[in-house]
Amino acid sequence: MPRLTKRHIDALPAREKEYFVWDDQLKGFGARVYPNGGKRYIAQTFRRGKTIRVQIGRHGVLSFDEAKARARKIIADIDEGRNPNKEKEAERLSPTVAQLAERFLKEYVPDHCKARTRVEYRHAVERYILPALGSIKVTALGRDDVAALHHEMREKPYQANRTLGVVSKMMNQAEAWGLRSDRSNPCYHVRKYKEKKRERFLTADELARLGKALNEEESFAPSAVTAFRLLLYTGHGCRRSRR
Prior knowledge:
alpha+beta; four-stranded antiparallel beta sheet; 9 helices
């Protein structure tokens, strides 16, 4: 076997049938020559009695040095038990974040979240997550993608943190459904923003409109309206008494 070089591969002639040439310096690194004259770099090794062959890239598009460096890594990965071909296939078949979100909202949220949480989750998904991350494959979603979304929302720290929490919950569920490897949640180490507690009192007009809305809802949810009025009156009364 020759020591492969770019010049050597450039000079390889096309034949009636495809054939391989191998490097004598890096075992398993070679080139595949097709009948039409096309050439591709490949990496090949054996694992548990089976041949694993990985196409690296097209000669003339990918540089020789880069192809050899990739081959060295691929061979090392296979020796450690990974199969790049299966990983590529898994990524190809992986759903997008949008598809995961649809399943998450239909299958997980209704049975595991309270009504208010369901509303908040759907809002975060539709308003923030889908526009930024929806087209990305679930297996390809990385920390940089999540951190970029979180950073874009920095002017709204409360919503940014809640949206980060929804993405994290979705990714945890993706692991549970076998769509990502365990402990691969890309939200890990994305630091939440500090949140400032805000306190504001309703104006007289706002109180009047709220009272009207409660009256309209009382026949549908009397216990909830009663509880809300209790919180409203005691909270408002206590604050006024301290003035």
